[in-house]
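Q: What does the predicted 3D structure of O-succinylhomoserine sulfhydrylase look like?
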Amino acid sequence: MKDHKSQTRRTRTQLVHGGTKRSQWGELSEAMFLTQGFAYDSAAQAEARFIEAGEDEYIYARYGNPTVRMFEERIALLEGAEDGFATASGMAAVNGALAAMLKAGDHVVGARALFGSCLYILEEILPRYGVEVTLVDGTDLDAWEAALRPDTKAVFFESMSNPTLEVIDIEGVAKLAHKVGATVVVDNVFSTPVYSKALEQGADVVIYSATKHIDGQGRTLGGVILGTREFIRKTVEPYMKHTGGSMSPFTAWVLLKGLETIDLRVRAQTETAEALALRLKGHPALRRVIYPGLADHPQHDLAQRQLGAGGTMLSFDVAGGKAAAFAMLDALEVVLISNNLGDAKSIATHPATTTHSRLSEEMRAELGIGDGLIRLSVGLEDPEDLAEDILGALAQA
Ligand SMILES: *Cc1c(COP(=O)(O)O)cnc(C)c1O
């Protein structure tokens, strides 16, 4: 039977074949090993496995499962990481990566513009366990430098922020962080694993919510922590396997299928997002259009260097504020109102009243999340239908 020689092949081949483990039946599609436990040939084999489980030796699904392992190997190949640990959700990955390495007395520097639950971990949970957290403007390298200290153990940021699509300089932050010996943890969801070169650019740990582009079809929650084999197996695995945030085999199977098509999907979604951004730019009903692929984006050059693309997300500020933004959203016929992203279905979000409603008004103003701001996750529909839908809805705003 053909084994996984795809390890040495190019990305799209790896995404279809990488990490595949076949049973004695030679099944074509990856098997879904819906089992929580594994039977041993003998008592001695059980003993040996508890002393040290070798590769492809399993004990209990919270520790590892063949379908989950296939997903970990395939996403690690895509990212160019030595290893990965799959988690029950993106937040289990963020929390797991940080909690596994930090202890009371440690210091963390984070970028201020964060997904709400990431902000909650940094602002509410870590301090409760004696970890000191400093938040900075992630786009300002001087601010990072000023906040870093000899006792800074980790820095954490989203490489492209939500919902204002600021791009943070991974290489620049990593250089500063490594000077004090801090581990660079990057939440790379908006950048997507398709465009990411985060590890090459200096990140030590890369995190994805697999719920987003990796599934890309709205079916499941999942996450993954990627890094060196040493970090994943010695630091992350013990924490995750004993605290219960592991991925289910069913989820891993869905996500393996997602990985088969992620390159095609994300590139098509990006192409449409770029075309829409160009069509919307200068529209009289809009105050601004934010898309890292547009030449007027404040970090356009950085986005080109870091990702080589503008990504699948774009945001725009409707001039008439909340009432106009709501009128526009309600007039959409193809694009759905929801708060997910990275999906085959295009999704529009009003961050000020949903994903970012927990923030104070001052904080929203500081982050540029106005009452007219709409975030658009561009899907796989026909680009012309999307353009007609959005331009038609804007006429109502
Ligand atoms: C969605 C998201 C998460 C959390 O992922 P879940 O799978 O919903 O737990 C974390 N960070 C970013 C940037 C996200 O967009």
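A (community wiki): The structure tokens above were generated from the sequence. The first helix runs from residue 11 to 17. The CA atoms of residues 21 and 70 lie 7 Å apart.
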